[in-house]
């Protein structure tokens, strides 16, 4: 009686400890020579206590029979086959080993998918490839969303990446690139920056605390019509591609079209000019879409825009040469950001108001944003200082993006705190 | 009587660009590409009935030898009513520029021995690439652009060479090399990119000269 109890207990314990493992399980491939042998295997199949798992069932002599045999039964099944003269070979010596390896391979592959990216951030891309990458980022990260804020003149969507880890209408930061289409390092840098922020959230302290408190909206191609035109027709195109009534010339300078000192000095009233301000403020749908979006949101704290070239870090004003009320803070923050930029590769950015540093220019975006209550309004002019100008070699994209990111981060951290 | 100017503000940087353009024309060649590393100091003097004179202290580097810099001083005089005359420029280089004698000779012989006249376009290309064998042509274009920039600058302009749209070598019966360029110049204030035709003569000893043809 005691023996029986022990057996039952151990069976129960065994059952409870039974994790489904396949340690020692073997998979045999059996080559039957005739109907007699097929019948033998079918007999074997009927012995349920062996718990044989036929991957290919015995049916006809010409077809192989694959069977998984639990460890305990391996020796006895083999003995049976040998005694019947039935040929077999070992397909899998130990099934658990194979499963373990497969699991590891899958984990590594998933890790590679997550951490790698087939998009080459160190090269220039066309609009379609950029838009595809925006989709990729949005699908890969739960806190990244691609939204459309409007359409260009030629009906191309204006896509913004929204970085948000929660909350409802959190204080937000705006970043755009490529408003002047020939400034190719800016769209390219914006893509790298988007990927950097997305992939570093959760591991980088600064980015994590930033996105835990604030949202970020990134418009990598603010002027898609112009951008396509730089690829198809004229690499030096700057403006939008809108038709101007009464003129054979096309396009408006989108950074003279904002409602800030519109039509004043530093913008041209001639449609053929590369700094043509347009028939009226916000006449360009590319500008109006951003204006409407920011106004409707109502909670933007920073407005940052990327241009090239000249290596400058500027704050308002452009339309007038007087200092903004927040001059001291913006100058100090600008200098701190420029120092961060320089810390990486020694690249020097000059800091100052637009009007003093580069020229008087009316209708600019950061003047508009500043006068509409967004205190931290900065315009960056990225590499270089004229050696290549707009035609910056692709091998400088990553250095430019990385150093620029340090400057942006400095500003964003200040806004966050 | 000369007013100190912040080197980061545009009046000084525009004058510096003129000085660099002038120096590129004077001392540039297939083996030397001078660019501004830093504008160290700038002063301006307003001279009645004459114009505005800028005094500049510049630190320059050669793009082919960026480990070294060379200091120079420059004076740029923009004439009153400056629509018709180019600014007067004087530049003094402190010390010696790196010798380009060997590179110049090699380039000269290479071009002279070409069977077909050299033709090229879009230097750099859209992606910023310059094939290594065209870099000397690129630098000669810089020299040519230096002349154009010097001749056409005012206090309200700042020019850079944006791209060599087209270059065609023209074989000559004398010893000079001749290159007919179509240059694209980017003017920063108006933001225009303007095509400019310029013919450049070059010789290893005689240097670069714009042909007034």
TrEMBL record, chain A:
Gene designation: Cpa2
Compartments where located: Secreted
Pfam families per record: Peptidase_M14, Propep_M14
Entry cofactors: Zn(2+)
Protein name: CBPA2 Carboxypeptidase
Gene Ontology biological-process entries: proteolysis
Signal sequence residues: 1-18
A GO cellular component annotation in the UniProt record: extracellular space
InterPro entries registered for this protein in UniProt: CARBOXYPEPT_ZN_1 (IPR057246), CARBOXYPEPT_ZN_2 (IPR057247), CPA_M14_CPD (IPR034248), M14A-like_propep (IPR036990), M14A_act_pep (IPR003146), Peptidase_M14 (IPR000834)
PANTHER family: CARBOXYPEPTIDASE A2 (PTHR11705:SF71), PROTEASE FAMILY M14 CARBOXYPEPTIDASE A,B (PTHR11705)
CDD domains from the UniProt entry: M14_CPA
Active site: 381
Family of the protein in this entry: Belongs to the peptidase M14 family.
Positions of the Peptidase M14 domain: 123-415
Gene Ontology molecular-function annotations: metallocarboxypeptidase activity; zinc ion binding
PROSITE patterns: CARBOXYPEPT_ZN_1, CARBOXYPEPT_ZN_2, PEPTIDASE_M14
Keywords: Carboxypeptidase, Disulfide bond, Hydrolase, Metal-binding, Metalloprotease, Protease, Secreted, Signal, Zinc
TrEMBL record, chain B:
Classification via InterPro entries: CYSTATIN_LXN (IPR049897), Cystatin_sf (IPR046350), Latexin (IPR009684)
A GO MF label: metalloendopeptidase inhibitor activity
Transmembrane helix recorded as keyword: no
SUPFAM superfamilies reported in the protein's UniProt record: Cystatin/monellin
Residue span(s) of domain Cystatin LXN-type: 1-102, 119-213
Domain of life: Eukaryota
A single cellular component GO annotation: extracellular space
Keyword match Repeat: yes
Keywords: Protease inhibitor, Repeat
Cited Pfam families: LXN (PF06907)
Record-stated family: Belongs to the protease inhibitor I47 (latexin) family.
Protein name: LXN protein
């Amino acid at each position: 009686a005691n023996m029986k109890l022990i057996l039952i207990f151990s069976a129960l314990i065994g059952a409870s400890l039974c994790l489904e493992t396949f340690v020692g399980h073997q998979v045999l491939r059996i080559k039957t020579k005739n109907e007699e042998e097929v019948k033998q295997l079918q007999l074997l199949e009927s012995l349920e206590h062996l718990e044989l798992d036929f991957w290919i069932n015995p049916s006809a002599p010409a077809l192989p029979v694959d069977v998984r045999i639990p460890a305990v039964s391996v020796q006895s099944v083999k003995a049976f086959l040998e005694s019947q003269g039935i040929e077999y070979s070992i397909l899998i010596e130990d099934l658990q080993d194979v499963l373990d390896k497969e699991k590891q391979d899958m984990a590594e592959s998933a890790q590679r998918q997550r951490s790698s990216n087939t998009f080459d951030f160190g090269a220039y891309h066309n609009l379609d490839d950029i838009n595809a990458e925006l989709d990729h980022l949005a699908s890969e990260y739960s806190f990244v969303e691609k939204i459309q804020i409007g359409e260009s003149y030629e009906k191309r969507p204006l896509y913004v990446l929204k970085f948000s880890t929660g909350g409802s209408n959190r204080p937000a930061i705006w970043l755009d690139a490529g408003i002047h289409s020939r400034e190719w390092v800016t769209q390219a840098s914006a893509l790298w920056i988007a990927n950097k922020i997305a992939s570093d959230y959760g591991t980088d302290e600064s980015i994590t605390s930033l996105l835990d408190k604030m949202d970020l909206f990134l418009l990598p191609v603010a002027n898609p019509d112009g951008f396509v035109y730089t690829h198809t027709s004229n690499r030096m195109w700057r403006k939008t591609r809108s038709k101007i009534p009464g003129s054979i010339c096309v396009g408006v300078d989108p950074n003279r079209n904002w409602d800030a000192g519109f039509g004043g000095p530093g913008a041209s009233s001639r449609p053929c000019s590369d700094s043509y301000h347009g028939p009226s403020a916000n006449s360009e749908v590319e500008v109006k879409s951003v204006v409407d979006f920011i106004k409707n949101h109502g909670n933007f704290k920073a407005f940052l825009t990327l241009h090239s070239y000249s290596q400058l870090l500027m704050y308002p004003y452009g339309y007038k040469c007087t200092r903004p009320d927040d001059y001291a803070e913006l100058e100090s923050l600008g200098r701190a950001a420029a120092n961060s930029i320089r810390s990486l590769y020694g690249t020097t950015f000059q800091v100052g108001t637009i009007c003093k540093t580069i020229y008087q220019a009316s209708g600019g975006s950061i003047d508009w944003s500043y006068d509409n209550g967004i205190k931290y309004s900065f315009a960056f002019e990225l590499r270089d200082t004229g050696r290549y100008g707009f035609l910056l070699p692709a091998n400088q994209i990553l250095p430019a993006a990385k150093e620029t990111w340090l400057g942006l981060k400095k500003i964003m951290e200040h806004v966050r705190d | 009587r000369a007013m100190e100017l912040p080197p980061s503000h545009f009046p000084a940087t525009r004058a510096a660009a003129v000085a660099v353009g002038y120096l590129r024309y004077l001392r540039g060649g297939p083996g030397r590409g001078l660019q501004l590393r830093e504008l160290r100091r700038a002063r301006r003097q307003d001279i009645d009935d004459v114009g505005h004179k800028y005094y500049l202290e510049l630190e320059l580097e050669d793009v082919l030898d960026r480990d070294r810099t060379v200091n120079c001083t420059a004076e740029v005089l923009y004439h009153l009513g400056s629509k018709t005359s180019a600014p007067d420029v004087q530049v003094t280089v402190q010390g010696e520029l790196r010798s380009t004698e060997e590179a110049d000779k090699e380039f000269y012989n290479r071009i002279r021995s070409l069977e077909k006249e050299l033709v090229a376009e879009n230097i750099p290309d859209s992606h910023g690439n310059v094939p290594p064998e065209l870099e000397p042509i690129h630098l000669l274009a810089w020299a040519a652009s230096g002349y154009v920039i010097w001749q056409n600058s005012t206090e309200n302009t700042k020019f850079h060479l944006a791209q060599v749209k087209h270059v065609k070598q023209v074989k000559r019966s004398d010893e000079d090399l001749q290159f007919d360029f179509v240059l694209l110049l980017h003017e920063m204030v108006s933001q225009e990119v303007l095509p400019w035709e310029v013919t450049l003569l070059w010789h290893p000893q005689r240097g670069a000269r714009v042909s007034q043809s």
